[in-house]
Amino acid sequence: MFFIALAGYYYILGGESAKEKAKTLISSVIAGLVIIFASFILLKFINPDLIHFKTIQPPQLSGVGNLPDCSKVGLGDQCALTTTSGQIGAVGDGQGGGIAEKGQCTVSNLSACGAWNVSEAMTICQHESQGLTDSQGGADPCGNLFYNGKPVAISYGLFQINLKDSTSPEFPECQGVLTYTKECLAPLKTLNNGKQYCPSRKCVAPKGQAALDKCIAAITSKERNIKQGCNMFQKNCWSPWTTASFLSTKTCKK
Question: Does 164 reside within a domain?
C-alpha cells in the first residue's frame, strides 16, 4: 500500500520522468502481489499447515543426550525432554549437555529429593549404578559371605550406599550387620596408580546371615536408596561419591 501511494504521489505531482517512475513502481508492486498470492496458493496445495502461523514451543524429545544449555536457547525452566507418553524423560544440564534417563535413574524417581539438582543426581546415579537397583560395588567384596549367590559387596543400590558407613538414618536394620576384617582371602592386586587392594576380604556377619540379607534387601529398595542418597547429599553435598568428578558444576544448595 505504501508503494502504491508513493507511485500515485509521483504520478500526480511529478513531471514526465516522475510519471514513468510511478508506472514502473506500480508494475513492480503488482508483480510482487502476484508472486505472493501464487506462493500462498502453492503452499496451501502442498501442505495447508505451511500457511498457518504457530507459537514456538519448547522441544519435546526423548532419550537424547548432549542437550543445549537451557538458558542459551531461551527455555529457562522449560528445558526438559518428554517421552512419548508425556512424562519428563531427561533434563538439560545447563552446561551445553544433557542427561537422558537410564534404568531407574529417572527424573520422576530422583525428583523425590527436593534438595538436589536432578540433572546432577542423574549423572551420579548413572555412574554409580547404571540405573540398576541391585547394583553392587566392586571394591573389597566379602569372599566368605554371599547374597543371592554373589559375594557381599561393600555398597549397593542406585547411589551405592555403603553397608558400613552410610546407612544412617534410613537403614536402622543395617546397623552392625557387617564387619570387615584385615584378612584377605586372595592375593593382593595392584592398581594402575601402584596401590594394592584386596580382591576378596574376609567378613563377619555379627547378627547372622538373615539380618544381613534383610539389610541388603532394604538398601536395594529404589525409594529408600534414593532417600538415603538425599540425606547424604544434604549433609555433605556430592563429596561422598567419587563419581562427582563427572559433574561440571556442583549445586550444593537449591
Answer: yes
User: Does the residue 60 lie in any domain?
Assistant: no
pTM above 0.70, yes or no: no
Q: Go through the chain and tell me how many residues it has.
A: 254
End-to-end CA distance of the chain: 56
Asked if the structure places residue 160 within a domain, the reply is yes
pLDDT mean for each 10 residues of the chain (254 residues): 70 73 78 86 82 58 47 48 47 54 86 88 91 89 93 94 90 93 90 86 95 96 96 94 86 74
Q: Is residue 105 part of a domain?
A: no
- 45 is in which domain, residue-wise? 2-51
Nearest-angstrom CA–CA distance, 70 and 94: 6
Q: Which residues contact 161 (CB under 8 A, 6 or more apart)?
A: 155, 167, 171, 219, 225, 228, 229, 232
Among 129, 169, 170, CA closest to 153: 129
Domain total of the chain: 2
Q: What is the DSSP string of 166-222?
A: S-TTT-GGGTTS-EEEEEESS--EE-TTS-EE-SSEEEE-TT-HHHHHHHHHHHT-H
My answer on whether omega of the bond before 240 falls inside 30° of 0, hence cis, is no
The pLDDT of residue 18: 73
Closest Cα partner for 158 from 239, 206, 229, 254? Answer: 229
Residue 132 CA, chain-centre distance (Å), reads 16
pLDDT digits (tens, 9 = 90+) for 159-196: 999 988 888 999 999 999 999 898 999 999 888 888 88
